[in-house]
Design brief:
8 strands; mainly beta
Length: 103
């Protein structure tokens, strides 16, 4: 059975961002309300929610950590945390070192 889900990064004039929809025959793993598909064997795991790819990761553990962070909030550790300009944890795409008080 083939599954299909939307690629939110698709751009019709820039094929490097992939097709409009991903299709796979791989059976997904359900985890905390998300589906995890191993789209490229041994290389790419897609996290899908409501028919839309949310993230692409290099392993199943990374996919589960991504889901955990989406549900529980990002983990704050001594290495790096997503923060906004004021140093508050957030879901920005910009990585900065964790502020001292968040470690």
């Amino acid at each position: 059975m083939t599954s299909s889900y939307r690629n939110p990064w698709h751009h019709p004039r820039q094929p490097m961002y992939g097709p409009e929809n991903y299709e796979t025959d791989v059976k997904p793993v359900e985890y905390r309300g998300f589906l995890i598909y191993q789209r490229v064997e041994g290389q790419v795991w897609d996290v899908v929610k409501d028919g839309v790819c949310q993230s692409q990761l290099a392993g199943p553990d990374g996919a589960r950590r991504y889901i955990d962070a989406r549900i529980d909030g990002p983990a704050i550790d001594s290495r790096c945390v997503l923060v906004d300009a004021a140093g508050r944890p957030c879901w920005s795409q910009e990585f900065r070192p964790a502020p001292e008080d968040a470690r």
